Amino acid sequence: MNTTGISIPKRKATTPIMLRRGLVGSWILTALLCFSVSLGWQQRQDASKTLGIDAAPSVVAAHQIKIYIETLDADLANELLGRPGEMDSYIKDFDNARVEIGKNLIAAAKNITYGDAELVPIQHIQESLGRYLMTAQAAREAHNRADQDGMLAQYRNGCKILKQDLVPAAEALNIANNSVLQTTYNNQKSESTLTMSLVSLSGVCLLIILVGMQVYLRVKFRRRFNAPLLVATVISTLFVCYTTAAFAANLKDMKGIKEDSYESVLALLDARADAYEANAAESRWLLDRQNKAEHAETFREFTARLARFTGDQTFQNAVAIGQKRNLAFSAELRRGHTPVEAGLVTRSRYPFSGFDGALRRALDNITFPDSNPDRDEPTQSVETLRTFGVYYSLDARIRNLENSGQHAQALAFCLSTKAGDSNWAFFQFDQALGKWLKLNQDWMARYTNNALADINGLQYLSPVVALVVALLAFLGMRSRLNEYN
Length: 485
Fold this sequence. Notes:
- The protein has one domain.
- The chain is built from 13 helices and two strands.
- The chain has helices at 15-81, 88-110, 116-144, 148-221, 227-287, 292-306, 315-334, 339-349, 358-363, 377-403, 407-415, 422-455, 458-482, and strands at 308-309, 355-356.
- It is elongated and about 110 Å long.
């Protein structure tokens, strides 16, 4: 309330003032849109690189290190079971595994992104691997001079290093990268929603003010259209639509990296590492008879990590369910469903009741059909399960032969790679698993490239569009403002 008696005139919102307000408002919203798009691009760029280039490949490398560590143990046990000079294939495979561990360690060391969480396990693996190789050589030398007790003592020392040092260090390296990947993906989903909302809000507000200015000019100046403002409105509309589509495509490809391919890769790598540990335990059961109960339990534990059954479920029944799923999956694809939708339908229709483990988890994430059977995930998944069932069933024959006093026959059947023998069956399984793993890794790389391509160029397009829209808004208002100068 004015008590002074003096009249204070209010400043009237004249046409020039309204024009200037509209121009400044459009500039502010254009700058906000540019900032929102740039922020969203940076967030998605960092997340895509973290998932697809830094963390996921590092997790794969850590798993590969663990797999080749288990391979060393299996090959050494098989070599020591045979006669000196007659196990060249296992010696060669041992050396190959040693080289592959070195390659993956180098790859992991070159891609250290998270400090000591990665560096310390890498250093521990390097140091422990040297000690393990020394004990392996000592076991070989004792074996060559027929010193059975010395050989077993050195072999057990190597197993101790493997179990207490090498495998835990490889798992720590895996955990370090996997935790970052999980955190990055979860953060990316929430942050992408925020930046998408910010882009949409700033874009809609900019369009409202540009259209509002156009309407205001038409009412005040009786002009049908202001060409610069019309062009600015069209450019802004197209840019907002393009950006939201790019962000949505990036989010979809990020889901493909993490949920469709990485989760399967992780389950299959776990399965492969556990399979090699089980295979090594099977050979240890024949080699180290004093601790046969421990080795038999290890075999049961690690095969159960891949596949364990309850009730009346069996490998044969599970394979039959998988085959039914594949037929239904193809039928759903022909009806026009996406692979993800087809997978949901077939899983609900044909559940794996009484079946659990890494293979079950991977079988429940089938996403990638292909006309080539080697790249067709439904085909390779069922083939992997079938061949693992064959290998598992042959283990009983090894134990029956050994327990009935037929050690030489048990040994030959265990080590042989002839069709129908134990290690032949194991390598058939490993080959099928390798194909299944590779197709998921290929899709993970494809999704990563697509995720980066989805948003490529936005970092340059955003400021250019902002400058153009701001300039057009100025040009559209300048002629009208000049009429009042």
